[in-house]
User: What shape does this take?
Amino acid sequence: MKTDIHSHLLPSIDDGCKDIDDSLKALDQAKKAGVRNIICTPHVNCYKKQDKEKIHELYERLKIEANKRNINLFLGNEVLLTNDMIELLKQDMVFSLADTKYLLVEFKRNENRPFEDIVSLLDEVIDLGYKVILAHPEYYSNYRSISKMKILKQQGILLQMDATSILRKYHSRQVVHFTKKILKEKLIDFISSDIHQTEERNYKNYLRCYRKMKRRYGKKQVTKLFENDSIIEEKLS
Assistant: This one.
């Protein structure tokens, strides 16, 4: 059974599913893809404080529909790394993943601050007691370096790859090439859908990626990446 820790399933809250019909269609696709656990991770950044009450209400409604499909739904956020992010965390304005100490963090796609500053800011997040997961490191063109990824891993950062990142149809040669490199180095901890219910990011392509990777890398490695239940296990412990 697959576990998806990064999804934009909640309707009309960010750039993910547009409405409830979009969300239900995605859940049906997820069931066909063999997904058992999904964490909803709407975007949050320092420029606009999210309405936690509204998000929780949408989540509870969708959770009922997920249960009908034998899918366990959990709540979290995808948090943009900024200097003001620390204050949001201190003010409890952010959902951690499934109410654990795991926190899904992303950079701006064109982020170009010195890597040392990135490391320092992530250290501040860790000092608050969080276990940081970096979303889709393959997307950040200014940090596509195995040595940089290894520095993050040594810092205790976990890495989450998007499923579609090995599908050349949807990504540049640079993204696909770096994705293959970090997989070869076994630096990835999770593979997730990052579903937005678009042509590119949906559970049909998530399943396509799973099958492709299973052929290329073998069942053992792929199972580990798609079925990493460390967050769910911490939630239930």
In short: Residues 2-236 form a domain with the TIM Barrel fold (CATH 3.20.20.140).
